[in-house]
Amino acid sequence: MSWRRSWLEGCLLLMALIFLAVASMGCRRPFRVPEQVRPISGKLDARTTINGLTVEAAAITDEDELMRLFNANMILARILVIKVMLKNQDNEPVDLHRLKFDLRDAQDHEFKFLEPEKAVDKLYEYYEITTYVILTRKGLEADFQQKALSTESDLRPGEERQGLVFFAIPEAVDKFSPLRDLILRLERLRWPQSGRNTTAELRLSR
Q1: CA distance linking residue 182 with residue 202, whole number of Å
Q2: CA 39 – CA 180 distance, rounded (Å)
């Protein structure tokens, strides 16, 4: 009958529209990575120079700034983002391949280093995003990786390099209280030509 056929066609059309709506939601990136992070002053920041290597670090803790940069409240997702800048003013390269980050607060709570893809995992988990297109998520992970501080090559004499470093805020730390007095250590910095090895320590305070 014609009315039954029309009803069936209407149901199929509705199902198609629902499918397209869900698909479009899955294709849209829920988060983003900033093209550039401006210098952050007056926050949790610090600077030190050791063996001709200048290290600057600044934690991004302002909620409005985080929403503007990432379209997500990273702190509530228990992710701390620190912008790190390295400048080699020595006459020999610095080997960064074994560089290890160690971050703790005044109570010795350890903020574990997060690979970029693990930071994306925590975002999806916190915002309870379970429906997504794999390629969209992989693209977001690639963006996070691109903006992360690169340690895959030596820091040449005169070279300046900057990027983001991600840490997990431990459960023992109240994420609703302002972070303060963090100690960031860059361990296993190496100058292979002269055989020097050292650790750079920065005290990030307001």
Answers
A1: 8
A2: 19
Instruction: Answer for the pair 58, 83: CB distance below 8 angstroms, yes or no.
Output: yes
Strands (E), the chain: 44-50, 53-60, 79-88, 100-105, 110-114, 160-168, 182-191, 196-204
What pLDDT is recorded for position 20? 39
- Opening angle at CA 79, ends 94 and 203, nearest 5: 50
Residues 43, 19: Cα–Cα separation, whole Å: 45
| pTM given for the model | 0.80
Whole-number Å distance between alpha carbons of 90 and 155: 10
Helix axes 134-147, 116-126, angle to 10 degrees: 130
Q: Which residues pair with 58 in a beta bridge?
A: 45, 83
For domain 32-204, give the CATH number: 2.60.40.1150
Amino acid found at 19: F
Residue 181 DSSP label: -
Calpha distance 179→111 (Å, rounded): 12
Helix (H) or strand (E) holding 45: strand 44-50
195: left (phi over 0), alpha (psi -120 to 50) or beta: left
Q: CA-to-CA distance for 142 and 114, rounded, in angstroms?
A: 14
- The full set of domain ranges for the chain reads 1-30, 32-204
pLDDT at position 38: 52
Residues of the chain with pLDDT under 70: 1-42, 131-135
